[in-house]
């Protein structure tokens, strides 16, 4: 069942950058989760998680907790939809601006001009047309999908942690409740360790998870030169990435669907909780799943920052080529094949071999 059907995207402040928008989703998530416990009088949750002291049970109390958690999950999905909507809105604007100024013939002409680029300057040094992280067009889709698959496995394992109580109707004593919470946390640690290994993240530096994911997708921490060879090899993909938003959405589809599926499965599991279930077990699991959903948002944010960055690099490269190509078409040549005087002569001559 899709518990998120028809959800409207949240508004993400327009002044925030893509990176800031990703952090906004996470910060908002933490803030709203803390409000759950204040609103239902469970300010002692942190103490429960630390000490394992059992919360006082009461018929219907667990449902009140569950309802608020489900609402929190649905709100997180609205934030995530808003985040995606903002990214794709920016990308579509860049694409529209390019297409508004240049038709398909212009793009074809730019592609034809790439082999004529000067690969070296007058001193024989390799000419640099820009900088980029060493993204790999051939593997980028699989690089992104790796994270979706890892999050799928993580979700499947964490969902099962709730079943540690052995029965939906289990009601433990204070001591038993504490033992349940402790065992859940221990299982979470093992599951998270497996997850980090699966995506190649150093567990000693999980506080910079976003940074490690971005380094992985970028294939390094240092930018490389955009040279003639790079352009000759990648021009088809550069044009495609710059002019077709379905290409960008293709890279994003898996991570988007994975996060949605994980939130849905968490809601489904929560709705199956019986009203007389021990609160300690449920709140311990709920806190684990809160961390998991926040982790989903962190991974998603890092991936989408890279998708946007990759697309922006392609747009910048093709925009420069299109601009230069457009100017060459307005020039004429003398019988000696020298470029006639033009304010653009130096720039064009440095770019192309004529």
Q: What gyration radius follows from the Cα positions, in whole Å?
A: 26 Å
Helix percent reads 55-70%
Number of helices: 11
Average pLDDT works out at 81
Q: What would the principal axes of the Cα set say about the shape?
A: elongated
Helix and strand succession? HHHHEHHHEHHHH
Total beta strands? 2
Question: Spans of 5+ residues with little confidence (pLDDT < 50)?
Answer: 51-57, 167-171, 331-349
Content-based structural category: mainly alpha
Secondary structure: elements and pairs:
Elements: H1 18-39, H2 45-51, H3 61-101, H4 104-113, E1 131-132, H5 140-160, H6 174-198, H7 209-218, E2 224-225, H8 228-243, H9 245-271, H10 279-328, H11 345-351
Antiparallel strand pairs: 1-2
Helix pairs in contact: 1-3, 1-10, 3-9, 3-10, 4-10, 5-6, 5-9, 5-10, 6-10, 7-10, 8-10, 9-10
Give short descriptive properties of this protein.
two-stranded antiparallel ribbon; mainly alpha; single chain; 1% strand; 354 residues; 2 strands; 11 helices
What's the short version?
This protein is mainly alpha-helical and 354 residues long. The protein is 67% helix and 1% strand.
Write a structural description.
The protein has one domain. The protein is 67% helix and 1% strand. The chain is built from eleven helices and two strands. It has a two-stranded antiparallel sheet with strand order 1-2. Helix 1 (18-39) packs antiparallel against helix 10 and helix 5 (140-160) packs parallel to helix 9 (245-271). The longest helix has 50 residues, at 279-328.
């Amino acid at each position: 069942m899709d518990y998120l059907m028809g959800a409207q995207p949240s508004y993400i402040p327009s002044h925030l950058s893509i990176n800031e928008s990703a952090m906004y989703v996470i910060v908002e998530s933490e803030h709203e989760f803390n409000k759950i416990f204040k609103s239902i009088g469970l300010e002692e949750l942190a103490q429960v998680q630390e000490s394992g002291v059992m919360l006082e049970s009461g018929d219907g109390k667990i449902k009140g907790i569950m309802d608020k958690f489900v609402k929190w999950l649905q709100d997180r999905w609205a934030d995530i939809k808003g985040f995606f909507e903002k990214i794709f809105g920016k990308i579509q604007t860049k694409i529209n601006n390019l297409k508004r100024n240049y038709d398909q013939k212009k793009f074809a002409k730019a592609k034809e001009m790439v082999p004529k680029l000067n690969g070296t300057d007058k001193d024989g040094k390799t000419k640099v047309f820009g900088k980029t992280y060493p993204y790999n067009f051939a593997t980028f889709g699989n690089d992104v999908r790796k994270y979706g698959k890892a999050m799928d496995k993580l979700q499947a394992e964490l969902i099962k942690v709730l079943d540690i109580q052995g029965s939906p109707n289990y009601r433990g004593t204070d001591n038993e409740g504490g033992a349940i919470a402790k065992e859940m946390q221990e299982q979470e640690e093992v599951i998270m360790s497996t997850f980090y290994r699966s995506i190649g993240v150093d567990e000693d530096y999980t506080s910079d998870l976003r940074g490690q994911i971005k380094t992985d997708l970028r294939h390094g921490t240092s930018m490389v030169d955009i040279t003639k060879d790079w352009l000759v090899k990648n021009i088809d993909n550069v044009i495609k990435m710059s002019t077709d938003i379905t290409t960008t959405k293709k890279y994003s589809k898996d991570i988007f669907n994975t996060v949605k599926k994980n939130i849905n499965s968490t809601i489904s599991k929560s709705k199956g909780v019986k009203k007389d279930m021990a609160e300690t077990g449920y709140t311990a699991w709920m806190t684990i799943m809160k961390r998991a959903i926040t982790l989903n948002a962190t991974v998603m944010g890092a991936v989408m920052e890279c998708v946007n960055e990759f697309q922006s690099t392609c747009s910048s490269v093709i925009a420069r080529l299109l601009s230069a190509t457009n100017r060459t078409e307005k020039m004429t040549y003398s019988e000696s094949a020298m470029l006639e005087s033009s304010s653009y002569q130096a720039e064009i001559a440095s770019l192309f071999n004529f």
